[in-house]
Amino acid sequence: MSAKRLSLGQRLLRGLGGGDAGRDAGHAGGRNPSKSSAPRPAAAPPRSPVAAAGSDPAAALTDEQLFADRRRVKAGPKALREVPSEQLDEILATHLRWVTTKGAEGTRADLSRAFLREAYLQSARLRGADLRDASLQRAEMQHIDLYMADLRGADLLHCQLHGADLRRARMEKVVAIGIKAIEANLEAAVLTEADLREADLREIVLVGADLQRAHLRDANLFLAEMQGANLAGADLSRADLQGADLSQADLQGAVLEGAQLRGADLSAANLCGAVLIGVEGLTGEQLQEARTDAQTRPPSTLAS
């Protein structure tokens, strides 16, 4: 007999089930009497949820930290809220009517602080939806429509956003470590102080986007379209910017130490005060096309 097909809401909530009991099993054993008098070593400091540079961010997360959202579902002033599958289906349906009728019918989706870890939202139409502070860790959101959606403070750890439409979305201070957003469109999106370390952003569109003070260390921005983007104060250390279009971008005070800039378009880009130590593939011609000042820190050698 074929398995019963789950509703969209049921698939969205598939990550809420068990999994915690196994972690507690290893603590059940008794103490060894022969070692009871030995002094106990000092407790190890808690592991930081932020991975060391160059490592997998998720590897630095303990099970306790990775599943911390489950505790927040039921407690705290900013607790995440569970959304029953029937209610979720209704929210998605009424939001779709709100979109298609341009507000004449239906209701805008309010999924703020919703627990949607590992949600299946491929190709969902959630443009203009409220997803502030929602937990969307490891969600499947390929080709989703989030045009003008509000995702401020959302947790997008390791989300799949290939081909997503996030134009003009509000994404201030999102946690998006390790996301895959290949060919996604974030034109004019607001990503100030967003955490995009080790994100796969190949061929992404960030034209006119606001990325001030964003964390893009080790991000892959190969062939990214970033014309006129505001990257002032951003951390682009070791980022792959090969072939990226950074024309007229504001990189004032940005850190590009160790970044790859081979073939990048820097015409009319603002590199005043930028740190370019150790960049790879940067030519004198590229540097001359950009605007620099006495505070710009160029690499010791330039590519030919």
Summarize, please.
With 304 residues, the chain is low in regular secondary structure. Helix content is 13%, strand content 0%. The protein is elongated and about 60 Å long.
Tell me the helix content.
Answer: 10-25%
Q: Report the biggest beta sheet as strand number plus sense, adding barrel if it closes.
A: none
Low-confidence stretches: 12-39, 41-59
Give the overall average pLDDT. Answer: 84
Number of helices: 6
Structural class: little secondary structure
- N-to-C terminal Cα separation, in Å? 66 Å
Taken as a percent bin, the fraction of beta residues is: under 5%
Overall 3D form? elongated
Helix and strand pattern: HHHHHH
Rg value? 23 Å
Per DSSP E runs of 2 or more residues, the count of β-strands stands at 0
Protein model, in words:
With 304 residues, the protein is low in regular secondary structure. The chain is 13% helix and 0% strand. It is built from 6 helices and no strands. The protein is elongated and about 60 Å long. Residues 12-39 and 41-59 have low confidence and may be disordered.
